[in-house]
Amino acid sequence: MVPRAASASALVIGAGNMGLTYAEGMSKSRLLKKKNIMVLDKSEEKLEALNQISHFDAFKALDDCVPNADIIFVAVKPYHAEGVFKAIRTLVKPQQIIISIMAGVTIASIKEITGLEKVVRAMPNLPAQIGKGLTSYVTSKEVSRIEMLTVESLLDTTGKSMQVSDEKLIDASTGISGSGPAYVFYFMQSMMEAALQMGFSKNDSTVLVSQTFTGAVELFNQSNLSPNSWMDKVASKGGTTRAALDSMQDNNVNELIKEAAFAAFSRAVELGKEH
What we know:
By secondary structure, the chain is α/β, with parallel strands linked by helices. It has 11 helices and 8 strands.
């Protein structure tokens, strides 16, 4: 079991964008002392930068930090997973909790290679970098309710977390929330290009599209209406919005977006088989 919050310690393996995002988020958590945020990376450049941050303790060698962590957060690329897990196998202790944010890497494979039983598999997304992320997660049955609440609290430091009932839903959430911000950016890019072609400046195009997305999301969040209901509200028969929506319908945009989400979902499943 994770010790009392005041003495719990966390290690983040991998100082990439998402690893550092969680390290920064957890450093502000009341559950962990700032000095207990350990970060490991092989890059000398990153280690040098980490050493300049007062609330991080930077490490290059696994045996200097893994045995001292209560929670081990693995944030490396999926193809590095097996190597990391094999390397920590002789260093871990039975009560340690390991949290993986690697796409496709299953709880069963983490258990098998590391020898640890308390495993959390999570899928974050990019807005975690500004505290607006969504992290879906699932735990192995060996993780106690108190430990699960601790994990959830740590994941919440980057936005919101959502526990799912089945590990398959982690792969599915990869297709919706994990990769989802890129779909939004894709749509925004298309609208900005259209605005430019209509004669707006680059700056005005950016403001038009950005504020439109922000406003639409806020409208949705502050009501109980479905997206379809909002479309009906804004699209009058024979009007401009209806012309745009009809064009999307004629071009099967709805199905194409679903296909894209399922492509990400399928790739997450494939990654699990590869690793």
